[in-house]
Each structure stands twice: as C-alpha cells, then as structure tokens.
TrEMBL record:
It is found in: Membrane. One of its GO terms (cellular component) is membrane. This is Major facilitator superfamily (MFS) profile domain-containing protein. It is a multi-pass membrane protein. It comes from Penicilliopsis zonata CBS 506.65.
Length: 470
C-alpha cells in the first residue's frame, strides 16, 4: 500500500473526514436559524402572528425526518458491505436540501428542504459514528467522539453566527453559496477517504465471529470429537434463536440503552428549543437583528473546544458520570435564564454567561452519551456474540440514538412554542431546568436498576418475553 493510500485510510484522516461531515451537516442546519424569520417574512410573507408557529413546524420537520430515517439507515449500514455508499448518498441529499431552500418560494418547499436535511443528518450521525468506531477501536472512542463533538458544536454555533453576519452584509444568496462551497469540500474528502476494510477487529469481536461462523450447523459436522460437535450444534441453535429478533429490537430491550436514549431526548429537546425561541426572544427584548442573534450563539460555541479533553475524561472516569455532571449544570443555568427580561447591559452579560454554562454542559452531555451508546452495544455483543451480524451493531445503536435525538428535536420546538405562547419565557426555561435535574438524577443513581425493577427482574427479561411470544 502506498503512503498516500495509508494516509487516506489512517485513523486521523478518517476521523477528520467524519468530523468535517458532521460540521457541514450542523453548520448548514443552524446557518438557516437566523435566516428563517426573515425568509418567512420577506420571501414567503407569513403574518407576524404565525411566525413562531412556522418556525416550530420547520424545525420539527427536520426532527421528524431524522426520526424516521435513522433506524432504516442504521440497519442498512450494518448489513451493507460498505459504509461509503450511504455516506455519499447522505451528502447528495444535503446538497439537494440546500438547493431547495435556496429557491424556495412557498412554505411547502421550505418544509421539504428541512425534511431532506433531516434525512441527510440521519446518514451522517449513523454511518459516520459507525465509521469512527470501526476505525479507532473501543479504547479510543471517547477521544474520537470528543473530536466529532467539537466539529458538531462548532458547526452548530458558527452556522447561525456566520449566517447572520453574511446575510446582513452580503445578502441571502451569498450565505447559500457558502453552504454549497462547504458541500463541495465535503464531497472531495469523502471520495478521498478509504474506510476500514472490515468491522472492528478487536479480540472480542473476532471471537464473536468465530463463535457464530457455523450458524447453519453444517461446517461443524466434520470436526473431530462428538462432544465438540454437540457443543457447536448447541451454539448454532442458540445463535438461531438470537437471530429470530433483529439486533436493533434487542438493543431496544436494553435498560442501559433506554436510559441513554431518554437522556439524549431531553438534551435534544432543549437544544432545539433554544434554536426556536432564543432568536425571537432576543429580537423582542433587546431589539437585535440577524447579526445580534448570531452573536448570541458564541457562548454556546466556546466550550466545544474542550471536547477532546472531555473525551479523554470519559474514557477514564466513565460516560455516565460525565453526562450526569452536564445535566446537573443545566439545572441552575435554566432557572436563572428566567430573570433575563429587560433590555439592560446587566441582562445581556448574564445571558452570555448562562449560555456559556449551557454550552459547556451540552458538550459534556453530547460526548458522554455518544460514547455510552457504543459501550452498551459492545457489552451486548460480548454477552451474545454474533447477534448483530458480521459488521456488529454500531450503526444500529447510533440509529436508535438518532431516533431519540430526533424525537427531542420534534418535541423541543413544539413544547417550547406552546410554553412560551401560553405561559411565557420564565415557565419554559424552568421546565427545561427541572427536566435536566431529573435526567441527571437518573443517570447518576439509576444505572439501569429503575427499568429492571419495572420488568421485575433481569435486563434480558424483555427479550425472554419477546422470544416467548414469537
């Protein structure tokens, strides 16, 4: 293999390509945030009283597409011989969504653009995370996810920041030309990348493949020793029973994963609530335009540079501990946000400080939860080798993670819109503060025991029930 080929398949380059893909997806998604109110008012001519409703619908459309597409993409990626094809398909979908948004002249076209963006994100966050795990191995997942999380947060915050500045100074078309240029760069990198030629080749994975290589019970007949034949046949029968259920269904029965998915839903819920409510709220309180709205996201952006450090910390102290600290920090931050009600210098400074705390907390949560998903999948594969097939269940695990995240993305804008319209800003931020505190308590103290008690026994009881009813 030439030095150029070795570089294209190296860990650093592959993780960098996935990070750029995540950055591109997040950047274009959030770049539209400060543009949407202006687009709805000046291009679509939506009445001012309907502005909040359509902001919520457009953001929820993205989450709905991500919700539907993620498990399908995850299942296909784990069964496909290559992850490169779906990865490129996601990029083409993102390019299509950008073009539709650019030339949209109706609400239906805007909704379609956000749906296509959601489908693209399903590919990036499912296939991309699986490629990272395949490349770096279990011991370095935390550090790699820290890099990916940095790219996501940088894209999330610089998107609205640069989008607001460019649309103010250069116009609507300039900001979308910037998005197209970024997509072209992403195309070049994804075509240059050489993905790992096989699933993760760690010792436990190799052993799992060896254990299930004779699932049809034929190859073992010629081996010496009757007892060994019987053992292989017993293993084959066991594996056939495991195969009766798709791996993604078995993952859904894991109490450990359900807690992680619930936490991801809460995180996404208030994450997208900010996208929906914060631009309109600062426009109302401070009279800020797109550029001022963009500056609001700077404090959320800064802590993301700590993601690689946080990733190393996750590898050392555990994902659940780090995630719990993140949700715990959000509790006072959200409660204090209710006091931002006046157009004063003090309120602006406090807003920036609280957003900085929220940004740091979000970084802790995202890195830790992404690592925990892979840990749960690896644990399930160790307990039942081969249940996810030759390529493992990594993409399916992240597919479920995306389902939970997208569920929060659908719920967050709708819940935030209802709360702020009927009860006000203070009630909305206090509600999310309480949700954060409850989530922190579950992650720190439950550790899977709550759901096991609901089942009245072991974590695998739900699987036993499914096998019994099959």
């Amino acid at each position: 293999m030439s030095s150029w080929s070795r570089f294209r398949s190296s860990r650093g380059f592959v993780v960098s390509v996935v990070a750029v893909a995540v950055f591109t997806d997040a950047f274009i998604y959030d770049m539209i945030i400060p543009i949407l109110p202006i687009t709805l008012q000046t291009r679509i001519h939506v009445p001012e009283e309907e502005l909040q409703m359509w902001m919520s619908i457009l953001l929820a459309a993205f989450g709905g597409a991500l919700f539907v597409g993620s498990p399908i993409v995850g299942y296909y990626a784990d069964k496909s011989p290559s992850r490169q094809s779906p990865f490129l398909a996601g990029l083409l979908t993102l390019a299509g969504s950008t073009a539709v948004f650019w030339f949209s002249a109706s609400l239906a076209m805007l909704v379609l653009a956000r749906v296509l963006q959601g489908l693209s994100a399903a590919v990036v966050w499912t296939v991309g995370m699986a490629v990272v795990v395949d490349t770096v191995g279990q011991d370095r997942v935390g550090a790699a996810m820290g890099i990916v999380s940095t790219a996501m947060t940088v894209g999330t915050v610089t998107g609205p920041f640069l989008g607001g500045i460019i649309v103010t100074r250069a116009g609507y078309h300039a900001v979308l030309l910037m998005a197209i240029a970024l997509i072209v760069l992403d195309i070049v990198l994804r075509l240059a990348m050489i993905e790992p030629q096989s699933a993760p080749q760690r010792p436990d994975d190799v052993q799992g493949l060896l254990d299930v290589s004779d699932q049809d019970g034929v190859a073992g007949y010629g081996s010496p020793g009757a007892s060994q034949d019987l053992e292989r046949n017993d293993e084959s029968i066991s594996q056939e029973k495991h195969a009766a259920l798709p791996g993604i269904v078995r993952l859904m029965c894991s109490s450990s994963l359900l807690i992680v998915l619930g936490s991801a839903t809460v995180n996404a819920c208030y994450f997208t609530a900010f996208d929906t409510v914060l631009p309109l709220y600062v426009m109302k309180i401070f009279g800020w335009g797109p550029q001022g709205i963009g500056f609001c996201f700077i404090p959320l952006f800064a802590p993301s540079f700590l993601s690689p450090v946080i990733g190393h910390a996750v590898d050392r102290v555990g994902a659940r501990t780090v995630a719990s600290v993140g949700f715990l920090l959000d509790f006072p931050a959200f409660l204090l946000l209710r006091f931002i009600v006046r157009d004063s210098t003090t309120d602006k400074i406090v807003l920036y400080l609280l957003l900085l705390v929220a940004g740091f907390a979000s970084t802790l949560q995202m890195v830790a939860l992404m690592v925990e998903v892979n840990r749960v999948v690896e644990q399930r594969q160790k307990e039942c080798p081969g249940i996810f097939g030759q390529k493992g269940g990594t993409a399916q695990g992240y597919g479920l993670f995306n389902v939970a995240w997208s569920g929060g993305q659908v719920l967050g804008p709708l819940l935030a819109g209802v709360l702020i319209d009927h009860f006000g800003w203070g009630t909305m931020v206090c509600t999310f503060g309480v949700l954060s505190a409850i989530t922190a308590a579950l992650l720190a103290g439950a550790d899977g025991k709550v759901i096991r008690r609901l089942w009245g026994g072991r974590e695998d009881d739900c699987e036993d029930i499914l096998h019994t009813t099959a």
